[in-house]
Amino acid sequence: MAISVVMPALEMAQETGKLLAWRKKEGEAVKKGEPLLEIETDKAVVEIEAPGDGFLAGITAHEGAVIPVGETIAWLLAVGEKAPALKPTALPSARGTSAAPAAERAATAAARGAAAATAPAQTSSQISPKARRLAKELGVDTGGLSGSGPDGTITAEDVQAAADSKKSASSLPAATVASSSASPTGEGLSQIARLMAERMTQSWTTVPHFFLTREVDCTELMAAHKRLNPSVEKSNGAKLTITDLLIAAVARSIAKHPIMNASWMGTGIRHNPEINISLAMAVKDGVVSAVIHKADSAKLGEISTRRRDLAERALANRLRPADISGGTFTISNLGMYQVDAFVAIITPPQAATLAVGTIADRVVPVKGKPTIRPMMTMTLSSDHRVLGGARAAEFLITLAEAIQKPDGWLGE
């Protein structure tokens, strides 16, 4: 029986995926679980495995095409079997309207609005979930919009274009708009970089952030790292890093403060059953958040091995769907870049992100005397809809104690 290969949905709000490459050729034999294709989402480049055994046939989408989620793009067939007839319906390869100047997008949105003025209002079934949420956040009336998605569905891009049109019309003089349209400038972005920019802009403008900063003495943490690294490397083949210790400390601290692991879901708070730490990783086109699942119960060797594996595959564009899904709390560590301190933007629907700076010697008072100690600055970004300052501060106290006295949890 023919097995369909479809564009997968790797997250709830995903509408499309960009096909980057086929790992197998037409007519080539494929085994279930083998890498079959690579797609690009707003989070990462992800490697998709074959859903079954067979010969790859009936490919309807080619590299660079943007495909609606759920669309069949090929078949896996048995010997002598024929692929069902399909029409290729991939969207244009460049969902690049966001890379165009704002004025140009505004003109497009205005044209859509004019065309839709005489059409009946869209029903809720013709609006994607992501577009509906974005319209609510940006105050966009979708009744007059014409959808550019499959079957006329209103997409998040349509909503954003309408919002940009409204903003541009009220803030830019006509001469400026004309000039901008005539002389577009700027560098085109990959889908990852463009959608990452959209997500961070949306988070920064819609999530009520507040920030808490804490300096912590890392003397004992560094001693534990030096002591444990040889045994971890010997047993797991991966060097133990300070980041690995921080992941373990954060996860175990979250277990004592479950609200830090919650998510804002639009109308209320969801308490997540697992503590899954997202680790921000720099890649060529931006940043991806790779997830270490159930980090609170993982041993240091397991965390070290998973972190190294994720980092290697992220740099090689070989992340799998499970590697980027399910994160409940994010750590962003720029200590290796000699950054003293910084503030990170929350990744919705997570409630918090921890920004970690470099460990550097500083003069601090110890028992009333100036002493040089290795100090680190942590900045916690929190969503005020989920938690207040006191609860976030309590979490930071617990985390600081875990870092200053790691022997209390290293054996857990």
What does it look like?
With about 400 residues, the protein is of the alpha+beta class. The chain folds into three domains: about 5-75, OB fold (Dihydrolipoamide Acetyltransferase, E2P) (Beta Barrel); about 95-195, no CATH class; about 210-410, Chloramphenicol acetyltransferase-like domain (Chloramphenicol Acetyltransferase). It has helices at about 100-115, 130-140, 155-170, 175-180, 190-205, 220-235, 240-255, 300-315, 390-405; strands at about 5, 15-20, 30, 35-40, 45-50, 55, 65-70, 70-75, 210-215, 260-265, 270, 275-285, 285-290, 330-335, 350-355, 360-365, 370-385. Strands 9, 12, 13, 14, 15, 16 and 17 form a seven-stranded mixed β-sheet that branches. Residues about 90-125 and about 170-185 have low confidence and may be disordered.
Strand content: 15-25%
Shape descriptor reads: globular
Tell me the structural class.
alpha+beta
CATH superfamily of the largest domain: Chloramphenicol acetyltransferase-like domain
Quaternary state reads: single chain
Helix-strand string: EEEEEEEEHHHHHEHHEEEEHEEEEH
Number of strands: 17
Low-confidence stretches: 91-125, 171-185
In CATH, what is the class of the largest domain? Alpha Beta
Which key features would you list for this structure?
412 residues; alpha+beta; OB fold (Dihydrolipoamide Acetyltransferase, E2P); Chloramphenicol Acetyltransferase; 3 domains; four-stranded antiparallel β-sheet; 9 helices; 17 strands
Care to give the gist of this entry?
By secondary structure, the protein is of the alpha+beta class.
